[in-house]
Amino acid sequence: MDGTGSAGEASMIRLSGVGKTYDDGTVAVHALDLEVRRGELVCLVGPSGCGKSTTLKMINRLIEPTTGTIEIDGRDVTRQDPVQLRRSIGYVIQQVGLFPHQRIIANVMTVPLLYGESKATARARATELLELVGLDPARYAERYPSQLSGGQQQRVGVARALAAKPPVLLMDEPFGAVDPLVRLRLQDEFLRLQRDLGVTVVFVTHDIDEAVRLGDRVAVFATGGRLAQYDTPARILGRPADDFVADFVGSTSGLRRLDVTPLDPAHLEPLEGVRAGDIGAAIDVDSTLGHAMAVLLRDDAGMVGVRDGARFVGVLTPNGIHRALRAALAEMADA
Ligand code: ADP
User: Which residues line ligand 1 (CB under 6 A)?
Assistant: First the structure.
């Protein structure tokens, strides 16, 4: 599998022939080529022990690769001072690692202070970040970590990692310990934040749902630290590269594809002849098929109206959704 992107798109992180064999002979990562574009969110996903965390930790040199090279923004990471390097790369882990005896604001101010920012600047930046991650500074800044819920602590972890405005953020199962509903919210919030800030993210998860939900592209790892497929969520789900990937994405991949396939105006049916009473709520033309399906089921209607701004552009039926899914698959085959 070739992990390099198309020419012309700026690469932010590039792993070339990267391997890691631990001292006891365990091959954790094998000849890995992986390229992450500037501003991209890439998820590394796969079963436990397939080398995801090792890969992540090689990027910020918590672990040294045995073979290959890693470049960030065109610079070989092994030629940089590891401490300096790690300060310029945000890192969020599941156990958060907040300092328990420091208030929330102080936790977030840590890295800017290390960088030599004034206290006032660091505090202003930390306050702004708490707001960005959805924690009201007036309520939470002066609390201690133990006075926050798991989800809130995780938000502080994200805020702290972003405090130094790192161009690259590494995240290792950051939302793994929170309950499913909180997790969905954290994912949504994080996606918005990532888009707003334009930060390049490598995100490790063992959860394929999380990977296809968040990732611009998804790298599926197989046992032995082998990259099985590196592709868009729609292609991972619709065109798994081999039996391993097909098995990993599972039999519900058809359902998941609904959420990663945009609605295609070509599969709408015209409004003419449709009685107003037959249409449920209207959805935006930029919606996913999953959203269309959810609205159809919610309203128990035979079709859902689709609008582009204020203008109705047609209706979508269950048949239309099916046709759109099949067409998306066919398109992938042609590509
Ligand atoms: P993942 O993050 O996908 O669960 P890891 O990168 O943590 O996988 O581990 C990959 C493989 O390397 C596993 O077989 C694991 O047991 C092994 N491993 C991880 N850390 C070490 C270590 N310090 N020494 C020896 N083997 C290790």
Answer: 22, 24, 26, 28, 46, 48-54
Candidate of 43, 50, 208 to mutate for ligand 1, largest count of ligand atoms within 8 Å of Cβ? 50
Of all protein residues, whose CA lies closest to atom 6 belonging to ligand 1?
51
Residues in the chain, overall count: 335
* CB-CB contact of 279 with 315 (8 Å): yes
6 Cβ neighbours under 8 A, 6+ residues apart? none
Per the CB < 8 A criterion, the answer to whether 213 and 187 are in contact is: yes
Per-residue pLDDT tens over the stretch 176-198: 878 888 888 889 989 998 998 89
pLDDT in tens, 191-242: 998 998 899 999 999 999 999 999 999 999 998 899 999 999 999 999 999 9
Q: What is the 3-state secondary structure (H, E, C) of the chain?
A: CCCCCCCCCCEEEEEEEEEEECCCCCEEEEEEEEEEECCCEEEEECCCCCCHHHHHHHHCCCCCCCEEEEEECCEEHHHCCHHHHHHCEEEEECCCCCCCCCCHHHHHHHHHHHCCCCHHHHHHHHHHHHHHCCCCHHHHCCCCHHHCCHHHHHHHHHHHHHCCCCCEEEEECCCCCCCHHHHHHHHHHHHHHHHHHCCEEEEEECCHHHHHHHCCEEEEEECCCEEEEEECHHHHHHCCCCHHHHHHHCCCHHHHHHHHCECCHHHCECCCCCCHHHEEEEEECCCEHHHHHHHHHHHCCCEEEEEECCEEEEEECHHHHHHHHHHHHHHHHHC
CA distances in angstroms from 147 to 139, 152, 167, listed in the order given: 11, 9, 31
Q: Measured in angstroms, how far is the CA atom of residue 211 from the centroid of ligand 1?
A: 20
pTM: 0.85
